Structure to design on (1013 residues):
């Protein structure tokens, strides 16, 4: 490389290192929507509610709903408290509220209402409660006041000496030692220890440059933090005052101390933080400028640490935001400087370095080097070579990269040594073996490269000699000189001394819950852990006698199916298994989400983007930064959020929430009631679980999600019940606190025991009388009913033998009567009647009936069937039988007097249908034709048994088909058979056999053509 180019490269590397932020791990914030993104004051009452002074008035937040809190009044304007800057939660559960023009107000939780107390009419800027319960009021215009809730009396308290004319009291603090601290327009005053309701205020001399004191805080060490309008920040400790920030014009508006002892300072242009030893932690947090999880605005007006340890930030333009401190989790988010190579924090590959630093590749294609503090120190590779997909360090300290479908060897400064093709496939994982070999898991198989042997990377083969194909996503050494391999195909193993991969057999019922493998981890103890896309985490328990692997399905047992464990598996010093999504503790058999509270958002966690740093920190890459985990600081949440009842509904109508300490009394006649309750865990309220149980009615808990917070009951019997309410925290741990609400449903007069007993006696007497009368009635009706039953039974029998549409008989009728008809025919034939007793079996089928339904509808088809039956019935003699045989087919059983007489009858039947068009329901006229197949019985008197009913019916059916084959609108009659048996030929060939006398109607060609249907 020419010297100028080298100098330019060195300059760019230095520039990239200088562009890193002073501290890389910034607090992450989540927002709560408030009107106009304006917050003037914050407070949390004893019950756990968060109270917010918004641009539209006072509101209360329960994690799900921002509820406006108003006083009583005739109009919306009269009910609104206006702009609220000052609130203080009293020890007795009440919340004191300072208004703009109406003085002091108080929220009474026992009555769930806000009541006005009056007092000074100037803007209330500060409130404090001392240890006697006295409420101190600082106003902008009327100075300092005190209010005694017991005596309900206001009293003005002048400032000392020359400050008597000072009317601006901007900050108040009732310290734990009994002192009252007063911040005002000219500085700071405080009382000596003693009775705080009668303070002897003294002025603390301050430099004139610091200006008005408008924020005060007592920390856990008893030190007093002093925030000034000039931007100065002071600390009073052991009688000494020292300044941590000098005046810079950026006013201090709010102070709060976090759970770790650090102090947050809200200013007009951002946030400062100081450690407990007063050293600055960070430069001021700037506005996020759209970066996820950043501070949404700069002008901070209110700070609050809630009961769960979260820090709430309110201000103008930033609205309301919440930071949930988590000592185990941090996010290395994007640098604010757009020129930084880490301005877009989308990591795609990570590699821990031996010096404690980290190599990071971005979606843009750059390869960055970060130090132990995760500050960018150098850009090793630019975008020109494409994005790096995977990295590993070789035994010789060289850097191996997978990118652009090839394997590359580099020096640690980024210089390329050599590159080999990987058939152009993407690389998911690179691993360096103890023997110096480099293993590449790709989207199309597994490659192994032995640098000491030279040559190109080689594909790993299966036992059949074919290369392993498909996605390979996981690799880890097996501790015996071989490798575990996982991918879309399943779990494989490459044993030491064997070139080919071997499938890992799995015991039936004890294998992996899902065949594909996303992640593999072998711990120092030799335990293998496997992650799959759907069944999650598994632990290898061993092998059975057949050599089949047996796995314990961890995620499935804990109800975490349908998702992976997180693919990027790591073990900490305590044996817990980590991924960017979950952590599993084998000792406690507990599976938790890593960030159930949402305290460390880093975008979408990417699979195969992870590293373990030298100090034990775990780093996982995401679309919006790096999640940094300190496992030694992690512990599952044991926070038990308080339960509150927000609303009551009786008979579907909202009711004013009464004092529920004595329980809920429902008046007689109440049909239903319901409650709205919530657990005040603001970390992740949508993740909470809720359950309720009405003792005396519900046999067990009724459980549901965050939308299951409104239990309701209806039609409860009078009596006493107890409603149990319970909730989990955001980690899914059920709170040991159960809210018990006694409920009494009062009885109406007619539900009282005495009234019920009297009513029961009267009912029994009436029932006995009614029973006697009813018995007599039933006996009289029994005779009439029996006769009616017999009549109806006969009618039902008749109806069951009829076709309901056409009125003809049905097959059931024929089945019941055909044997009798045949026996009668044979008996009469042996008598004087002779052949006159022979039967004629006709099958008549309406031609092209399907077209009637298709073209005119089923109603038209039904009309045709009904009219056809009427016309056929008119041609029959008494004693003949008309049967609807099926669909458009009719069976006629007649006695024409002679076999030859059947022919005219068949012709008359065809003519009866042909001579007049059929009338359809829509008024159209339709020409209908029919085909008839006819067979006489007995067909062969010498072989009655051969030509039985079944054969005769088959012959008639064959004749019907012959008539249709001859052109339809005609008949074919089989009158007799001599010497022919049904077994002599198939039924379809009977009509062609000699010995069968067959007569056919006039051919279709000799008749007028039938009209189209």
């Amino acid at each position: 490389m020419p010297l100028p180019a080298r100098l330019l490269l060195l300059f760019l590397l230095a520039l990239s290192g200088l562009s890193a932020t002073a501290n890389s791990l910034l607090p992450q914030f989540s927002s709560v929507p408030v009107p106009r993104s304006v917050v003037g004051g914050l407070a949390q009452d004893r019950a756990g509610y968060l109270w917010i002074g918004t641009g539209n008035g006072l509101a209360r937040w329960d994690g799900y709903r921002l509820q406006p809190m108003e006083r009583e009044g005739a109009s919306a304007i009269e009910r609104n408290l206006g702009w609220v800057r000052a609130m203080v939660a009293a020890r007795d559960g009440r919340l004191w509220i300072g208004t703009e023009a109406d003085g002091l107000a108080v929220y009474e939780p026992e009555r769930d209402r806000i009541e006005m107390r009056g007092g000074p009419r100037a803007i209330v800027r500060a409130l404090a409660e001392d240890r006697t319960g006295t409420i101190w009021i600082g106003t902008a215009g009327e100075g300092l006041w005190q209010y005694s809730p017991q005596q309900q009396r206001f009293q003005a308290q002048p400032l000392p000496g020359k400050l008597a004319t000072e009317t601006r009291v901007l900050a108040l603090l009732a310290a734990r030692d009994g002192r009252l601290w007063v911040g005002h327009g000219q500085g700071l005053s405080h009382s000596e220890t003693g009775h705080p309701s009668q303070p002897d205020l003294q002025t603390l001399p301050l430099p004139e440059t610091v200006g008005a004191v408008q924020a005060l805080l007592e920390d856990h060490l008893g030190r007093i933090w002093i925030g000034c309008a000039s931007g100065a920040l002071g600390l009073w400790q052991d009688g000494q005052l020292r300044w941590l920030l000098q005046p810079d014009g950026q006013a201090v508006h709010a102070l709060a101390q976090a759970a770790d002892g650090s102090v947050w300072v809200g200013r007009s242009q951002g946030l400062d933080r100081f450690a407990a030893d007063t050293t600055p932690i960070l430069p001021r947090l700037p506005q996020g400028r759209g970066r996820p999880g950043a501070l949404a605005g700069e002008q901070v007006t209110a700070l609050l640490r809630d009961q769960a340890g979260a820090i709430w930030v309110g201000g103008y333009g930033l609205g309301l935001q919440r930071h949930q401190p988590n000592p185990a989790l941090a996010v290395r988010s994007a640098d604010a400087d757009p020129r930084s190579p880490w301005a877009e924090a989308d990591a795609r590959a990570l590699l821990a370095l031996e010096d404690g630093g980290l190599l990071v590749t971005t979606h843009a294609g750059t390869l960055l080097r970060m130090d132990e503090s995760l500050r960018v120190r150098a850009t090793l590779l630019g975008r020109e070579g494409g994005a790096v997909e995977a990295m590993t360090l070789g035994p010789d300290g060289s850097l191996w990269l997978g990118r652009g479908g090839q394997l590359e060897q580099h020096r640690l400064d980024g210089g390329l040594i050599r590159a080999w093709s990987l058939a152009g496939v993407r690389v998911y994982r690179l691993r360096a073996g103890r023997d110096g070999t480099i293993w590449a898991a790709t989207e199309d198989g597994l490659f192994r490269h032995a640098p000491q042997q030279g040559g190109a990377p080689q594909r790993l083969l299966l036992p059949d000699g074919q290369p392993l194909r498909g996605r390979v996503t996981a690799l880890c050494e097996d501790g015996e000189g071989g490798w575990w391999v996982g991918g879309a195909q399943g779990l494989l193993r490459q044993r030491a001394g064997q070139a080919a991969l071997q499938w890992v057999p799995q015991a039936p019922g004890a294998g992996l819950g899902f065949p594909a493998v996303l992640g593999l981890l072998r711990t120092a103890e030799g335990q293998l852990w496997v992650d799959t896309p759907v069944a999650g985490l598994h632990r290898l328990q061993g092998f059975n006698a057949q050599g089949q692997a047996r796995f314990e399905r961890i995620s499935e047992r804990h109800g975490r199916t349908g998702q992976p464990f997180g693919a990027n598996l790591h073990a900490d010093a305590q044996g817990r298994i980590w991924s960017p999504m979950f952590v599993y503790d084998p000792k406690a058999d507990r599976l938790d989400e890593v960030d159930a509270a949402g305290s460390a958002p880093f975008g979408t966690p990417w699979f195969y983007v992870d590293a373990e740093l030298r100090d034990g920190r775990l780093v996982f890459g995401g679309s919006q930064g790096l999640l940094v985990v300190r496992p030694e600081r992690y512990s599952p949440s044991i926070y038990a959020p308080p339960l509150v009842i927000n609303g009551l509904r009786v008979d579907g109508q909202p009711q004013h929430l009464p004092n529920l300490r004595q329980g809920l009394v429902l008046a007689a006649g109440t049909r239903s009631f319901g409650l709205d309750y919530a657990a005040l865990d603001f970390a992740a309220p949508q993740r909470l679980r809720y359950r309720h149980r009405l003792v005396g009615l519900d046999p067990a808990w009724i459980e549901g999600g965050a939308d299951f917070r409104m239990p309701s009951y209806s039609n409860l019997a009078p009596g006493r019940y107890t409603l149990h309410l319970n909730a989990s925290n955001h980690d899914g741990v059920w709170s040991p606190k159960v809210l018990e609400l006694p409920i009494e449903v009062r009885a109406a007069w007619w539900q009282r025991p005495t009234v019920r007993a009297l009513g029961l006696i009267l009912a029994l007497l009436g029932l006995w009388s009614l029973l006697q009368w009813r018995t007599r009635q039933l006996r009289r009706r029994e005779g009439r009913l029996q006769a009616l039953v017999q009549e109806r039974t006969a009618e039902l029998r008749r109806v069951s033998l009829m076709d309901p549409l056409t009125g003809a008989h049905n097959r059931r009728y024929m089945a019941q009567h055909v044997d009798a008809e045949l026996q009668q025919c044979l008996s009469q034939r042996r008598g004087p009647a002779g052949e006159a007793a022979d039967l004629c079996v006709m099958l008549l089928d309406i031609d092209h009936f399907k077209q009637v339904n298709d073209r005119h509808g089923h109603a038209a088809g039904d009309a045709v069937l009904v009219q056809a039956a009427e016309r056929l019935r008119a041609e029959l003699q008494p004693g003949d039988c008309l049967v609807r045989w099926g669909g458009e087919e009719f069976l006629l059983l007649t006695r024409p007097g002679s076999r030859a007489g059947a022919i005219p009858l068949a012709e008359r039947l065809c003519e009866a249908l042909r001579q007049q068009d059929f009338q359809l329901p829509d008024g159209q006229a339709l020409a209908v034709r029919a085909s008839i197949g006819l067979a006489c019985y007995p067909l062969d008197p010498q072989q009655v048994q051969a030509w039985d009913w079944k054969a005769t019916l088959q012959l008639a059916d064959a004749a019907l088909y012959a008539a249709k084959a001859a052109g339809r609108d005609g008949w074919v009659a089989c009158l007799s058979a001599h010497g022919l048996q049904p077994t002599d030929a198939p039924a379809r060939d009977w009509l062609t056999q000699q010995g069968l006398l067959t007569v056919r109607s006039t051919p279709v060609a000799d008749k007028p053509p039938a009209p189209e249907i």
In short: Residues 643-751 form a domain with the Immunoglobulin-like fold (CATH 2.60.40.10). The CA atoms of residues 436 and 452 lie 8 Å apart. The first strand starts at residue 30 and ends at 32. The longest helix spans residues 753-800.
